[in-house]
Design brief:
single chain; 348 residues; alpha/beta; five-stranded mixed beta sheet; two-stranded antiparallel ribbon; binds 2-acetamido-2-deoxy-beta-D-glucopyranose; EXORDIUM-like; apoplast; signal; Protein EXORDIUM-like 3
Length: 348
């Protein structure tokens, strides 16, 4: 999910604006592929059953994913994390465990590293693939909510600026292979959180931060909307009869964040400056490789149905292994097969 372009470009003259408005309306009625139980798209139980009975996993018919000649992350990625607000050590361990498992090749099958292999199928103009390696970089704790408990899309950039310009232990500035991950605790509201997004990625503006740095924000939804952003480990009230699944690391909010973090990192790698891999004609509202597969975690997935998952002996549900942990991570679009794919696919 990328942030829209509102306010970034000069406003075009009225006739152009009209054409653009009509165009974006026409584009918006094209099929939406990903799924989350957003409050504005309530569906009833009959629909759920229907959706679960057909093979879905994204439909290639309408998807025209294209390369727009921009850079992708081919060099080793270093993830610098900003922990905004109140984070427990146990929560940090789950998230770090996931990030480091992306490059851990010896995890049990189906593995997070194999999930990343689909991301690696994307290349730049020179034919170089997305990197295999993602390192954990430096951490910055913003324990005292430097910019308050309610952040806008723009103030997020100010939080990043504070982290890279701090007088003690600033985060390193690495525009080429650094990836800045801002994680907000469950008591922080972020613009459009829960209503439209669970996370997004973009790049910082030199006018605000001083550099163009690819970044992603993901929020802990535990107190605000677990039924949306931590689905299926929590279920919204308007889906009666649906039981939440047991989360694999014992923290509904954080286990739900993992898939959103994975989503944003996959898209940052393939579209860091929003001019590389995406579908759709409007670069302000591109549909990226994880948007296409949101809500799909296994074979047969689509709509509210997650697809075939695995159940641990402890009753927890997951679809991949990473290091010693288990995670539930959405699939991403495979450009060779032209459908959503993951390491736990049954038909491979
Ligand atoms: C639920 O779906 C069925 C079948 O599509 C439809 O007839 C019914 O009106 C729907 N109910 C609501 C509350 O939307
Ligand atoms: C990238 O990471 C790999 C694996 O850790 C390492 O062997 C290699 O030296 C790194 N390359 C650079 C340019 O840092
Ligand atoms: C690099 O991308 C190409 C094109 O998708 C693919 O054929 C190749 O297998 C990829 N290489 C790696 C190492 O993933």
């Amino acid at each position: 999910m990328r942030q829209g372009c509102v306010g970034r470009y000069p406003v075009p003259p009225a006739p152009v604006l009209l054409v653009l408005t009509v165009l974006s309306f026409l584009l918006s009625i094209s099929p939406v592929v990903g799924w989350r139980p957003w409050p504005h798209q309530q569906i009833n139980a009959t629909d759920f059953e229907y959706e679960s009975s057909k093979k879905y996993e994204g439909s290639s018919e309408f998807v025209h994913l294209r390369y727009h000649m921009g850079p992708v992350l081919t060099a080793n990625i270093t993830v610098h994390t900003i922990w905004y607000g109140t984070w427990q050590k146990s929560q940090k361990r789950i998230i770090r465990g996931f990030l480091s498992s992306i490059s851990t090749v010896h995890s049990k099958h189906p593995s997070v590293a194999k999930w990343w292999k689909t991301v690696r199928l994307y290349t730049d103009q020179t034919g170089a693939n997305i990197t295999r390696t993602l390192h954990l970089g430096e951490d910055k704790n913003d324990r005292f909510y430097s910019h308050g408990k309610s952040l806008t899309r723009l103030s997020i950039q100010s939080v990043i600026k504070s982290a890279v310009t701090a007088t003690t232990h600033p985060l390193p500035i690495n525009p080429r292979s650094g990836l800045y991950l801002l994680l907000t605790s469950d008591d922080v509201y972020v613009q459009d959180f829960c209503g439209q997004v669970c996370g997004f990625h973009y790049f910082t503006f030199p006018s605000i931060v001083g550099y163009t740095l690819p970044y992603a924000w993901v929020g802990n939804s535990a107190k605000q909307c677990p039924g949306i952003c931590a689905y299926p480990f929590a279920v919204p009230v308007y889906m009666p009869g649906f039981k939440p699944l047991k989360s694999p690391n014992g923290d509904v909010g954080v286990d739900g964040m993992i898939s959103v973090i994975a989503h944003e990192i996959a898209e940052l790698a393939t579209n860091p400056l929003v001019n590389a891999w995406y579908a759709g004609k409007d670069p302000c509202f591109p549909v990226e490789i994880a948007d296409l597969c949101e809500g799909i975690y296994g074979t047969g997935g689509g709509g509210s149905y997650t697809g075939q998952l695995m159940d641990g002996e402890d009753g927890a549900t997951y679809n991949m292994n990473g290091g010693r942990r288990r995670f539930l991570v959405q699939w991403v679009w495979n450009p060779v097969l032209n459908y959503c794919f993951g390491p736990n696919a049954l038909d491979q």
